User: What shape does this take?
Amino acid sequence: MNELKNKIQDLSKEILTDIIAIRRHIHKNPELAYKEFETAKYISETLKRHNIKIDNGFGDNAVIGIIEGTNPGITIGLRADIDALPIHELNECDYKSSKDGIMHACGHDAHTASLIGTAIILNQLKAHINGRIILVFQPAEEKNPGGAIGLIEKGLLKKYEIKKMLGQHVMPETETGKFLFGAGQLMASTDELYVSFEGKGGHAALPKMRSDTVMALVDFISNAKKLQNSLTHELPFIITFGKIVADGAVNVIPDTAIAHGTMRTFDEDLRKHIKVELEKIAQTSALKYDCTTNFEICHGYPSLINDEELTELTKNAATQFLGSENIGELEIRMTAEDFAYYSREVPSVFYRFGVMGNGKGNISLHNPKFDLDENALQNSAALMAWLAIKIND
Assistant: This one.
């Protein structure tokens, strides 16, 4: 065990400069969800340079790498997301985004670079690998319906008979070198809420001659929050609205008022119940203020579930590799992840690694000034290689 551990650690140190260069290239050349064509091409070319077999049969913006071990065993899938966000970067650095309004502000550049590093390490350790390892460079994690469900529907898991999946994500508030694991329901489901109220706009001082789309919208949001507060449940859930538009004036009530929001929960029955109740609230608010309403729910990702047994196995293996002082507990989060689709199909573990150090990190994800300590990429690449081998040992 110590010999393999030392080999992986030595290899990760040797390639760290290359991994950082890969991350910076991807960061400088971001692409939005479903448009990651150049990113996929770059990943393919990089893997080919290291003599890693690839499969581009799942779309022009997805890359599947294949590493065959020399010993019998099952197939393990390792996933990294590759898309960026519609955010204008405010950092000043050599690798700052070259595309106005597009930025890797969620660490997907680091996930991708790290998995390429993992692939390079594993490709030199085939004698230690049982079965097969599939490297999944997945598009469109940031945009519903998400790239994971697309790959599953195209037969990725069945084609390669993937039996277990691992994924990882940066954690900006956690120190570099620390890894966090959690079992069971770990991240929430997410649904997008779109509501509009339409009526006859007009002068604010003449209520009998117009509808009140603004008050209908206010009434809906207020009662939606009351619904959230009235429901008790052992796990948290959220109904909230981030975009409200009622484009009238001081004395003008507009014809239309809209709100866009999100609903997040860990319980599928509660998820269905809330959807029905929100529809009723919208209709009631519209009737109350002489409006019509259009209420739409865009069904999003399910809640992410880490397999209990596999989580225990990976956590113990991570402790062997990094020491117990570098392994912590990951609490449930109301954020969502389309890795959840894999977790519904095969035993899966999604864990996080700290990137706070050298004056970087500790800035929220999806922030225009987000950056990370690139030294974290050494252990993120090394640990995933170790785990891929150990969970099929």
